[in-house]
Queue: 3 jobs
Job 1
Amino acid sequence: MNSAEYALQTVLLVAQRGSISVTELALALDVAPSTAHRVLANCRRSGFVRQDVRGGPYVPGPVLHEISLLASRPVRLRDAVDEVVHELHEETGETIGVMILEGRNARTVQSVAGAPPRAIGPRLGRVFPADLVAGGKAMLAVERPERLLRRFPDRKLSVAADGTRRSWRDFERELHIIRHRGWAYAIGDTDPRISAIAAPLVLASGDPVAAITVVMPRGRLSTRSEVEQMAGPLLQAAARAQSRLRGGEAHRLSPESASR
């Protein structure tokens, strides 16, 4: 068996038995204890197993638990966010969207247009550079470093609407701020008339699955106070959608407690 097959067999054994030790895994896979330990360490880093006590057995981790939830309760992304998106739309009157990552880009997979005279046109299906739009940056901020670099192997960023291009170092600084704050914003970066603010939806593994965005005319979302005022309802909506996506009960978070 190769390393991937060892890992899959290990995850299956942990799921079946509920826990497994290094010695037990070595016997089950017919490998040396050192190999079994390495396989378990890799599974632990990926979130498939966890070890509560040093030297103790390995038990199902958050990712394995999440897979079981998705298998037993088929909660699709649209099912998890649809009601939340409409609630946020009713609360704010603004255009609300859901974005997912596609390589270096972010695609809008769900959109509810704002009420006139606030309306921003339908954005369903539109694709934007992920490093320029709020939804893309919200997701990139919580990506694992190695996955982020796979998306941008050349570390070359997109050119904004005003013709500027940021350095990779400046971009990393921005992602660090977004990660700890819990939300991202973009003011005129893809269209000088439009601003947006977004919060990521993150699985228990820590991987981003989508982002909820609020899109507004730039004239009403450009100052710090305007952005921060919209962050509260957005974070509450993201918390509800994320909880539903994970199969739990919805709960409310303040902007401070929701920051990452």
Job 2
Amino acid sequence: MTDFGEQDTYVGAMKGVILSICPEAKMIDLTHRIPAQDICAAALQLSSVYAYFPPETIHLIVVDPGVGSQRRSIICQVENHTFVCPDNGLLTLVVQQAPIEASVAIQNKTYFLPQVSHTFHGRDIFAPVAAHLANGIPMSEFGPLVTDLRHLQLAKPDISESQIKGEIIWIDHFGNAITNIGHQHLQIIDPELKLQINFRDQQISRLSESYSTVPVGTTLALISSFDYLEISVNQGSASQICNLSLGDSVLVQPIIATTTTTRR
């Protein structure tokens, strides 16, 4: 996973390094379209997908606005998954989901390329280190143990008994707006999930099970495949149609049943 995009040869260079060191490596591209330097977006995407890979997978993540600075490079093991990345908060959400088994600072230059650029550690440090790990070199060979990993200060929903205040944290390729409000948060204010969702002077009065439960072009809210509240438009872009952006506020409240009485 990187923020390198697909126009340039940066990703290809990293793959070439890996194959030169570990010809048997099987590589899968998660995405190279993380917005440039957006560590928060990368942390979110990584945490939502890594567990679907088999044990002993090596995850190489390069979203590195601090390249060439004094920021650390690390290897971190979580739930029998190994992560190779800069220590800039990329693993914030991963380590919230499961405890760290071990982590080391990458310092042993034996496992770097002979020439290390000040601007492309993905090719010169992270790719060769990941390849050597795949060849069976133990983590302990790369550097000393560390415990003080850097964590991002990510926005958390404000939850009370009567409402949840959250925000949009990701807009996907389809224009779906994913919030930081999890399924478990919604159940706090109404276990039956009879809710109304408010955003940008708009309101949705129920949760849908899927996109197709409303007519084409209709705005809806549902629980996404990654278990977060999502605002969508059936066969349309909620981002464009509802004018939604990252950071927009979302308010969720239970629907209060009303009763009417008549006089006789």
Job 3
Amino acid sequence: MSASLQSAILEYIIPIVGVYLLAYFVHRRSGFIARRLLPIGGFALRHRRPRPERQRTLYGLVSSAITIAAYMTATAVTIGRFVDATTVVWMIGLFTAGFGLGARPLLSDYLSGISFIFEDTFDVGEKVEIMGIQGLIEEVNLRMTLLRGEDGELYTIPNGEIRIVRNFSRGRYSVTNAIFKIPTRDLNRSLTLLDELGKEACTLLPNLIEPWQVLAEDNVGQHTELKVLAKAQFGKGAELRPRMVSLIHERLSEAEIELAD
């Protein structure tokens, strides 16, 4: 091996390989580093521990940011081996300008991903609707969000495309309803019974937030359709409905009010 080749290996190749190996090591340990940084960085609320879903979301975002920073630093150090610091600054400036013009969608994806670190829009495990697609959030990183559809398919959504999010996993209450057909001759008696039962149901049905509302259809014939609207504890609407229907059937039967098929 010639002296010049040996000198090049020692001066350039080994340091460059070492820098990228270090970046790869940081990438592999990015999850661990993220778990250590999050409490220090104050991303969590000071007075209470963040939800497990929020923790997993932040781990994914911050570990992705650490990986990108590690490889960008390794690239900058590599370039610095061949050119002076002033030239590196100019190259970074030119690259940033060119990147901003030619890769706006990609830049928008990463900027949106950074904003997700500070904005609690949605978390891993939550049911959401994004761009008309409903499903569960499986993973969030700086570049994209992975959404598992209701039929099992996996959607990869660039963060820059996320504008409106419908989050089914957050809210104050859920709405449920039940529809009954009764003889019109029993309409007034049924309305009175259901109004009184709605107040009593708040103690009989734990998931009911407040007395329900009863609406009657305008077109009245031999039978009248009644709709009972109820507010349930958030996420408990499906559980409340069969209990509510059973209770209403029972009380109407006791009052000898027959339901139409």
